[in-house]
Amino acid sequence: MSSPGAGFQYPPKPVSWLKRDALLFANSIGCTQDELHFLYELHPDFQVFPTYPIILPFKGTTPEVIDFYSTNRQPSIPGLPAFDPKRVVDGQRFVEFRKPLPVSSEGRSFEVRGKVLGVYDKGKPGTVMETENLLVEKLAGGKEEVYCRMVGSGFYVGQGGWGGPKGPATPSFPPPKDKKPDAIYTLQLTPESALLYRLNGDYNPLHADPQPGKDMGFGGAIMHGLFSWNSTCHGLLKTLGGSDSKNIKEFQARFASPVKPGDKLVTEIWRTGDVDKEGWEEIRFLTRVDGGKVVLSNGRAKMKIVGGSSKL
Q1: Rounded to two decimals, what is the model's pTM?
Q2: What is d(CA 208, CA 189) in angstroms, rounded to the nearest whole number?
Q3: Distance from first CA to last CA of the chain, Å, rounded?
Q4: Which residue from 306, 252, 301 is spatially nearest to 281, judged by alpha carbons?
Q5: Helices and strands in the chain: count of H runs, count of E runs
Q6: What is the per-residue pLDDT across 160-178, written as a single tens digit (0 to 9) for each?
Q7: SS (H, E, C) 215-272
Q8: pLDDT (tens digit, 9 = 90+) per residue, 146-164?
């Protein structure tokens, strides 16, 4: 039985980006000077970091600062209550990379097409809304190309109890038992990390102004969940994939707890040895605050491995 709202189609959203946007994104998620193909527009192999499309539904087509709450207000969806966009956090994100992005969308026509996959009532804690977004290029003659498929869940804090279905259990991708990580990636954040990342187009005040975080029980401003998600993908690609976008096919993780600006993130990465006929290996990972809580769980990727185990 489908949930109320399932299948609801959002209006297509035009999106665009320039080389400068690709450079800013790579800088903001921790790419380093030995990865100039992400950081220098004149590099012969200049490329967009593969998870960049995840920011486009926030950014749209504008290079300007936007009002996060007004631009991300949910339209009225039949059968659902109105949810407060000021009290929503990320639950889980998945992306399937189908085609490398051009370094700029200039002179081309791209849009994000979204739909609701399910809306689940978790009672007093809140409501989960799962959505799918496709990044599509519109071509001449009515043709189209899909560059990536993104699935995400938003958790509307304290907005449950409206009588909806509880929803299915989420598939679990735990790390292998009794096996040390094959690689460890660390990233030291600064007090300004969220203030830099938000310039990509995700201007939620929760990540700049301490008051919304205090109102939601976080004690102050927190990092974007998608910062941890994107920077962890960078860690995997750098550690196992030779920092080459061609070496990752899928990436997903669940947001387990908030990260504060200035924290140190530690990602433990396991190879499973499960390789398909095209050479894509199943990877498991988790990211935690150094000495503290897990912040990304249920981590899974499909990658082509370059080199052996390492610790960065």
Answers
A1: 0.94
A2: 15
A3: 47
A4: 301
A5: 7, 11
A6: 999 999 999 889 999 998 8
A7: HCCCCCCCCCHHHHHHHHHHHHHHHHCCCCHHHEEEEEEEECCCCCCCCEEEEEEEEE
A8: 999 999 999 998 999 999 9
